[in-house]
Amino acid sequence: MSKKYVVGIDLGGTNARAAAVDRDLHIAARNRCSTPAADGFAAVMRSLAQLTDELLRDAKIDKSEVGGLCIACPGPLDGDQGIVIHAPNLQWFDVPVVKTLGDLTGLKTILENDANAAGYGEFIAGAGKGAQTMIMMTLGTGVGGAVVIDGQLRRGPSWTGGELGHTVILDGGRQCACGQRGCLEAYASATSTVGRFVEARQAGRPSSLTAAAVSCREIFTAAKEGDELAKEIVAGTAHYIAVAASNLANLLNPDRLVISGGPIQAGDFLFDQIRAAYVNRPFARPVQHMQILSATLGEDAGVVGAAGCALRLLA
Ligand SMILES: [Zn+2]
Is the model's pTM score more than 0.70? Predict the structure, then answer.
């Protein structure tokens, strides 16, 4: 008989979140803990096992009712082997996540990339619900991505599918942390939006924002309030996202591009600019078909997506 619940865990460098999710994708219970990253891999695994036990105990769910657990981790990783190859924030190299957490919890366990899990969460329960093909773009320190084609996450044989942050939108352009120049991440991430703003100011452009340290949110606020430099920088961010969106529309003819991350709090102020830059892209048929939407699940996207992977593969 199939089990009633699965567990999704979303592991970040600072916090870990867990949720028990039923077969209809309703969250029956959720909790979180800080990630003891400095204490090493074994300590993190023990804390996640404890988090899972507490989650199920508080929700009065017996482990016999749980079909399995999926943990979403930063990568690169190899889900087939169940290992995280390298997670800089956690100081992990080649760690056996699936075996260790499976042994500690006694639950069937699988591993998923964190950006993929968040994208899959939006696909099954958020802004992508009802679409066939959806792309997620996450704007943060970097630019993450996930690609769902005909209902299936596109992981790829190297588990690196969906890395749209490192598609090049301006050959020879700004340096990216990955080693290339001109990546989407080097233009559209929250970090690079701040970087472009600070560089322009250092080059002598005036702005109402004069503090040495500026956040992406402050730049968006200043742009809304009419600061010319901030407006120009935000328009640039929207333009680069639109270029990438047009490439994705042409490549995959998706139904939806869902954008998540801190900058989406700017709401229509950002999305109107992205859509205005996007609709002017040539090759109209795929461009007109693809909707550009804001993610709706917030912090739940990762645990819901992980649970969705567990439901699909384990329960
Ligand atoms: Zn890159």
Answer: yes
